[in-house]
Amino acid sequence: MKKLGFIFILFSLCVYGQDNSIDVLQQKLNSEKKAAKKMELINEMVAIAFNKNIAEALKYAKQGVKLSEESNDINWQPKFYEMQGRMHANLLELDSASLFFNKAIKGYETVKNDRGKATTLFKLSWVDKKKGDLEQALQKDLSALKIMETLKDNEGICDALTRVSEDLTRQNRLTEALEYAEKAIAIAEKHNLTSEKFYVNFNAANVAMAKSNYTQSLEYYNKALAICKKQNMGLATEADVTNGLGNALKRLGKYPEALESYKRCLELATAANYPNAISTVTANLGEVNMLMGNSKDALVYQLETVKLQESNNDVSNLIENYNHVSTIYNKLGNYELALNYKQKAYSLRDSIASIESDAKMSELLTQYETQKKEETIAFQSDKISQQTLIQTLSFGLLALLLGLLIFGFISYRNRSRANKLLASKNNEIELLLKEVHHRVKNNLEIVSSLLALQSAQIKEPNAKEAMAESQNRVNSIGIVHQKLYRSANLGAIEMKDYVLNLSETILDSFGAENKVRLNLAMNNLDLDIDTAVPLGLIINELLTNTVKYAFPDNNTGTITIKLEKQTNNMLHLEVADNGIGKLGITHGTGFGSQLIALLTRQLNGTMKEDYSNGTSVVFNFQLS
User: Which residues form the Signal transduction histidine kinase subgroup 2 dimerisation and phosphoacceptor domain (predicted)?
Assistant: First the structure.
């Protein structure tokens, strides 16, 4: 059985009234002057677009991020970071999703929005589950549950209980999973939580499926589907439930009905541009065709499923589908390929299996259940002990404090004068540096605008293209100074965030957001400005050439950027694409190649190119 992992709980947005269409809201946005009102409109546009096209919703979420950063609105920033991460997650762009979810958590902590932090922890937990890290996922869900209990937020508690139930279901701890599911249902019914009733019923259906109670599961799925349609929860959510219906029907042996449910799910997922559901239901279509004896149709669906899951690194489901492909090839008499896929399944299973992980997750849950009781007892004991201790020490401390206060006042007065003078100087230097970076950034924006204006007057295509490339080079430097004047650390650039912003700017400039998928295989890394600027220019040149030449005839593809600091004080950069090969890097005027070579020498580095599978360019730089 293949099911969707509660993506609708993580990524559903409230649905606004239909009086405001995207076009109407866009008109209001164009005429609105106040930044706060603009962000409200963008928030509504994201909500409406999510129920129709997730890629379009991502576009509006990016607008919100940009506007909230430009207006320095610390309340809206984490909300839009969370929105953009949500859309990346739905598109299975997991690295980008994690990056924005972590930024959202920091933003919520800054404004002391505990509920926002908890909801973002839910989403990070889902990303961990997609990556196969169930231990980290459970930790985040339990942390979020504790926050919701502290806030006495019944909806949040209900949501968290449902997620922990799903975590336990994944571990096949079905009795405990059912207990948490029933707790969630009880809270939803007791407090009449209309929106949560859908989620708790869907989760109960999944637990019943895992317990092999398919008739009960079918009843829960039908109830959840009715609520979904009544509340107009959107195409993506309806796709999730329809997939669940198909699973229950399949296990009841009602294969033709299951096949129709899966086909309906595929229609909904395609209409919503929902890659996770497309991958999931494609696998189920393969399985149900296999059960019906349609081996050739089943093979088409299963090979497509494996292709999607391999490209998205969906290790949590690949083992099952490698086995399905092996079974189909065996039935078709192709024993060599059957053995090949069976070996793939075994190899992947061995690479992610961990007995210790199950033990740790059990320990986490036990710790959580006992912690609440222990905290209550400890609180009462501490309170009594503290009262006795305070009475005993108060008189002695009072005398000691009087003496210390006199001595401290004299010392403080002397230190205060020196510290004020030093702090004043430091603040002046910091403000001056921020102002320098701000002015450099503004000047570069002016240069970029001038290039854009000049480009608009040029008719000759090659010259126009050269102007656009120059504009991107200026922008790559400008982003560095923008990051510096907004950062608390004026001496270093966080490269993952910088590379993401730079890459998205380049894709936007070529209108290639829907054509090229970006994969950032890198952790957070701080580099000084003298290293960051040349690296940014190198990445800019490689991305520009790849977008222009590696995917002709409107072909789609993936660009992977890897940057890491190695133990021998070497900086390793790799930019790769799965395009047509050598033309992806070397085609063009040659200026970009010369610039890359010059910058590589400047950073005391080496470059190696490989065209065996698309194009891969690898750099190694010796850090000083």
Answer: 435-509
pLDDT at 129: 87
Q: What is the pLDDT of residues 249-307, one digit of tens each?
A: 999 999 999 999 999 999 999 998 888 889 889 989 998 998 898 989 989 998 988 88
Extract the tokens encoding 478: 């400008």
Q: How far apart are CA 67 and CA 190, in angstroms?
A: 41
For residue 128, CA distances in Å to 89, 102, 137, 351, 573 come to 11, 13, 5, 17, 25
CA distances for 101 relative to 219, 470, 548, angstroms:
35, 33, 31
State how beta strands 516-520 and 557-565 pair.
parallel
Q: What are phi and psi of 573, to 5 degrees?
A: -125, 135
Complete edge-to-edge strand list for the sheet that includes strand 615-622: 516-520, 557-565, 570-577, 615-622, 605-610
∠ CA 184-186-190, nearest 5°, is: 120
Looking at mean pLDDT, say which of 197-201, 424-428, 467-471 comes out highest. 197-201
**pLDDT tens-digit readout, 152-168:** 999 999 999 999 998 88
State CA 365 to chain mean position distance: 25
Alpha helices in 235-334 (DSSP H): 235-251, 255-271, 275-291, 295-311, 315-331
Contact between 550 and 583 (Cβ < 8 Å):
yes
Burial of 613 (0-12, 13-18, 19+ CB in 10 A): exposed
pTM equals: 0.53
In contact, 256 and 267? CB cutoff 8 Å:
no
- Take residue 569 and report the two structure tokens written for it: 């004080």
Question: What b/e readout covers 446-472, taking b as 16+ CB neighbours within 10 angstroms?
Answer: ebbeebeeebeeeeeeeeebbbbbbbb
Pick from 22, 54, 55: nearest CA to 515 = 55
Stretch 233-260: mean pLDDT, rounded? 93
Query: Reduced to 3 states, what is the DSSP secondary structure of residue 325?
Result: helix
Residue of 285, 328, 336, 342 whose CA lies nearest to 308: 285
Q: What is the distance between the alpha carbons of residues 377 and 362, in angstroms, rounded to a whole number?
A: 23
